[in-house]
Write a structure and sequence with these properties.
Helix 4 (103-118) links the parallel strand 4 (83-94) and strand 5 (123-128). Helices cover 34% and strands 28% of the residues. Strands 1-2-3-4-5-7-6 form a seven-stranded mixed β-sheet. It is globular. With 179 residues, the chain is α+β, with helices and mostly antiparallel strands.
Length: 179
């Protein structure tokens, strides 16, 4: 890890008191599904997918745990095969009782710092539906903290979704990130 990356870790990884960031485990899958379901904004995937995510993508995902080890927030992601320097963030969610304390930002900073210890990460991508101001703020503030630009374009038009009405998904590309 470079000195600049270590400085970012020290500056941005402050967790709300009593919480810690950890790698998800298969046993966390049900809790992540419930947190996503209760968020009211995320597209809810099958419970099976959260179990698989915790098994197969634990290295590129993070969970926030309370003092008893119970998951209270998470961020799931993966490294894009065609762009191995890009971490795509799939979902970020925080339990209602823990919102407004900077937990989502701490999870995002913690995850990207951990992944960057294993590989060079030059960009973070995510998709956000228009009007999801909480996600827009989370990712634009992430870009500001890390001195990176934000570019966005529609990735998937509303009509491309086969399961009924769906807002378009706008791709946010944040980078280049400091190395």
């Amino acid at each position: 890890m470079t000195a600049a990356r270590a400085d970012l870790q020290a500056e941005f990884l402050e967790m709300p008191e009593g919480l810690r960031i950890d790698r998800p485990e298969v046993a966390d899958g049900a809790a992540l599904w419930h947190i996503a379901k209760d968020s009211g904004t995320l597209d809810l995937n099958s419970s099976y997918s959260y179990l698989l995510w915790c098994r197969d993508f634990a290295g590129t995902s993070a969970v926030a745990r309370d003092a008893d080890g119970v998951p209270v927030g998470f961020v799931t992601g993966y490294v894009r095969p065609e762009r191995p320097g890009t971490l795509l963030v799939w979902q970020v969610a925080v339990d209602a009782a823990h919102r407004g304390r900077g937990l989502a930002a701490a999870l995002l900073d913690g995850l990207t710092a951990r992944v960057a210890e294993q590989r060079t990460i030059t960009a973070v991508e995510t998709t956000i539906t228009p009007g999801n101001t909480a996600s827009e703020r989370l990712f634009t503030s992430y870009a500001r903290r890390h001195g990176a630009r934000v570019e966005h374009e529609v990735l998937f038009e509303a009509g491309q979704f086969p399961d009924g009405p769906h807002d378009p998904e706008v791709l946010y590309r944040i980078g280049p990130l400091p190395g």
